[in-house]
Amino acid sequence: MASTSQTATAPLTSGLRTAVVPAAGLGTRFLPATKTVPKELLPVVDTPGIELIAREAAQAGATRLAVVTAPRKQGVMEYFERDELLEETLAARGKTDQLAKVRAVNGLVDAVAVDQDRPLGLGHAVGCAESTLDDDEEFFAVLLPDDLVLPAGVINEMVKIREELGGTVLCGFEVPESEVSNYGVFDIEQSEGGVGGVAGEDVKKVRGMVEKPDAADAPSTVVATGRYLLDRSIFDALRRITPGKGGELQLTDAIELLIEEGHPVHVYIHHGGRHDLGNPGGYIRACVDAALQDDTYGPSLKTWLADRLGQEN
Ligand code: G1P
């Protein structure tokens, strides 16, 4: 395990300290680019996905980003290191805007590398990060970098829910029935209204969870998106599961085990947007979406797109 030298400056207000980011995947949906460029470094407009994740984690109060990487993806950790020569050059040339952009990632969080030497699944990746937590850390966040959840801030909401209800808090999304088999699917208690007062009816108790079921067997159309607030007891559960869907150690199965043993698990149903940065189709949408809201690129992109789409008819 290696830690970057910068000091974390985010205020520790939420009790959340560590955010785990599983980033060891091969990026097969994004070949050939991912042959040499980790998908977490592909930019949304000009900012790599890993920096968006680091910002989101820091905003939720996390001071440590445990990045689970594979030996061939060292570029992800290098991104958190300072480039003094580049900074000096930009400063000497008076390029203050670019200098601020280059420095923005430093000081957001303390990025810590966690090696996952074999691709044994999301559950295995999360388990690898256990040693990065302090002994008295009772819970931590997991942010999947493929999932861009909009607007950012859902983890903050989940932290508030945990403060009220304890246990584990997950993030759910309604999807069409035809898409459920791509996700972990929740079996939720269909109570009137919600549980607890924080987020009203968008908080539900989870009765069970199943990884990528056939549509016919799915308990609901509410699926897990890539934001988790996990109780530390998940590590013990992860040690006790056996390979599940796809022969991999599934985080979903460890959560299901906790539920079976009476551990409280709630889902916060998020109504915002979401992009899947892990494949070209979702990534292009994310880029267009972000660029349309960008002061520099938005206006001309909008004009060009309208013109371009006009030619399609
Ligand atoms: C993972 C999880 C799945 C979850 C999904 C969200 O699947 O295993 O439960 O719904 O992330 O993006 P993956 O997309 O890595 O196959």
UniProtKB/TrEMBL annotation:
InterPro entries: GalU_uridylyltTrfase_bac/arc (IPR005771), NTP_transferase_dom (IPR005835), Nucleotide-diphossugar_trans (IPR029044)
Keyword Manganese: no
Keyword Nucleotidyltransferase annotated: yes
Reactions catalysed according to its record: alpha-D-glucose 1-phosphate + UTP + H(+) = UDP-alpha-D-glucose + diphosphate
Keywords associated with the record: Nucleotidyltransferase, Transferase
EC number in record: 2.7.7.9
Example of a GO biological process term: UDP-alpha-D-glucose metabolic process
Domain of life: Bacteria
GO MF terms, alphabetically ordered: UTP:glucose-1-phosphate uridylyltransferase activity
Domain Nucleotidyl transferase, chain residue ranges per copy: 19-288
PANTHER family attached to this UniProt entry: UTP--GLUCOSE-1-PHOSPHATE URIDYLYLTRANSFERASE (PTHR43197)
Family that this chain belongs to: Belongs to the UDPGP type 2 family.
Name of the protein described by the UniProt record: UTP--glucose-1-phosphate uridylyltransferase
Native source organism of the sequence: Corynebacterium nuruki
